Amino acid sequence: MPKTDRIAALKDEITTWRRDFHSNPELLYDVHRTAGIVAEKLASFGCDEVVTGIGRTGVVGVIRGRSSGSGKVIGLRADMDALPIEEETNLPYRSKVSGKMHACGHDGHTAMLLGAARYLAETRDFDGTVVLLFQPAEEGGGGARAMIDDGVMDRFGVQEVYGMHNMPGLPVGSFALRPGPLMAAADRFRIRVEGKGGHAAKPNETIDTLLVSTHIVTALQSIVSRNADPLESAVVSVTAFKAGEAFNVIPQTAELMGTVRTLTPELRDLCETRLKEIVTTIARAFGATATVEYERGYPVTRNHAAQTEFAAGIAAKVAAGAGAVDLEVPPTMGAEDFSFMLEARPGAFIFMGNGDSAGLHHPAYDFNDEAIPVGVGYWATLVETAMPAN
Ligand code: NI
């Protein structure tokens, strides 16, 4: 049976898996049910190796081709975790767990990579080895890094890695990617300002933390407008401001929180340095003190040039109907855990159209099952093209 027919024939079954994952969302590393199903299915497809517990709850499946003379080993990655969001849909397969929801489509990513595993284990029409990487905790938990720290790349000899994320607004059958930075580094900060509280009628006897903090919020906007190269992208957002609870009291302390997003390591360093300088010196100027906790999150998701060109070629073969491949999509300031894998090995991350759906992380979002054959076709074609059978 030709490949597209075989994959089309698997669509209904893969859809059933996807909807089961959707009904049973799990968070971060606590993906025991999902990981258990993934491992069980990989074994039932006849994968040569299935290993669980990598990066706590990550699962790896290994499929060797008809031959392995090429010595090539390619890693394909899917994420398994959901989000702490209350689902607001009336879908028959809506989340059965209150406060948890697959609002980023990782249910679809996991189901599509399982579908590709099934096809590849059945046909083995390639010369080399595929390593399927099912990771936990993409949503803020660093599950990819946990798997790498557990030695997944060396242990399975992975030479190149590929990842995929669905993209609402992009038509089903279309793809988008770019070489270089595709998604941002995402850092977070927490600022504590300590002044001198007191009666609001006697401000002269206080050090007004609230006034100090508002100056800090305003001055932080100068990092992007005055320190960053205007041709580069950066975001500095203060997203929480907690101070005071009475009409007539000047608060003793204030707390600010926020995020910094950048597309290059140099700008990332610059933003961190300037943020700390601005906060501490402004506080000092008013006679207050301030501390900054700055926590680096996911690094830049940086696509490697050769693998990106290769991935774009695969996408062009698979792009369906009115589908197209945009090789110059602008970067987004969102962040992605796959960035750690791209730091460990050359590879490429690609966006795949989810059609006209609600946005990612929205309570009405749903993965588009019509995209399943496109995603599975991308994985299968990538493997068979990168490691052609003799
Ligand atoms: Ni996601």
UniProtKB/TrEMBL annotation:
Residue span, Peptidase M20 dimerisation domain: 188-283
Cofactor(s) required for function per UniProt: Mn(2+)
Co-factor binding comment: The Mn(2+) ion enhances activity.
GO molecular function, one term: hippurate hydrolase activity
The EC number(s) this enzyme carries: 3.5.1.32
Protein residues bound to Mn(2+): C104, H106, E139, H165, H361
Record's keyword terms, sorted: Hydrolase, Manganese, Metal-binding
GO biological process: diaminopimelate biosynthetic process
Keyword check for Hydrolase: yes
Taxonomy, superkingdom: Bacteria
CDD domains noted in UniProt: M20_Acy1-like
Name this polypeptide is given: Hippurate hydrolase
Organism for this UniProt entry: Chelatococcus caeni
